[in-house]
Amino acid sequence: MTDASRTDPMIAIAGLQKTYKSGFEALKNVDLTIQKGEILALLGPNGAGKTTLISAICGITMPTGGSIKVGGHDIVREAGKTRRMIGLVPQEITLEPFETVLNTVRFSRGLFGMPSNPALMEEILKKLSLWDKKDTQIKELSGGMKRRVLIAKAMAHEPKVLFLDEPTAGVDVELRKEMWDVVADLKETGVTIILTTHYIEEAEAIADRVAIISKGRILLVDEKAALIERMGKRSLTIDFDKQLSAVPDSLAAYDLVMSQDGTSATYTYDTRADRTGIGALLRDVNAAGLSVRDLHTAQSSLEEIFVSLVEHDTDQTTAASAGEAA
Questions:
Q1: pLDDT digit string (tens) for 80-119?
Q2: Dihedral (CA of 182, 185, 190, 192) sign
């Protein structure tokens, strides 16, 4: 195997477009590469194009422009090969209620023309903590267990790529974290995972990279940690030893945000700046005759970054529309 082949992406998307007969552009020149064995979190508001993008990669929706390759195979010209490489876990729970867990997973494998493999079925069900439920009818399972069955179905034909569309929607926090462990275990086997989610903490917990999509366009793709470091802001909260009625005029330049009870103020600064301004702020706080009881900092979360990016995209679109109208 050559060095080049080892570095070829598992999924390569170039100039992808999807325009419906109504004229609505669901995807606009999307470029995206996903490496083998990584977990990519695809974040975006409702209607952003997440489901359309997944459907296009899976061969469910036909693109109107651009190209998609999975494992080096074109999804249009080599549809049979690419579909066998992909497992899809839909958001909706669509399972036959009177069928058993084991038969449900076996049937899914058979749909792809794969030979019977009892040992693999046992391995998959044990990995998903479903083996003791193998003879249980689907209708008797909890919502969380049904989602595990959906993952087992998607894994039954041994795909190289697994799409998880809102896998923990409607699941309680404890079970959500259990599902994160399941996803991490799947990654260890070399499976490439693309996750769509509304839960920002889900992306923070398990993703290697984050892609943010809005209005059919990819706004940003970056390593999760690098994204927070590059675009995030850090805040310094100063706790005073007495209540203040307002921020002193001498500190107005720092844009401090006073707490409701007047006992603390928060200063936000850019982590990328050459100087944070913290030293000057603390000197000026002291010069103002204020006694500091405590200091603590916090890093902005992916949620804050996501919201700011989408709002910026919305503002730009509104401004462009206004310009065209003028």
A1: 999 999 999 888 888 999 999 999 999 999 999 999 999 9
A2: positive
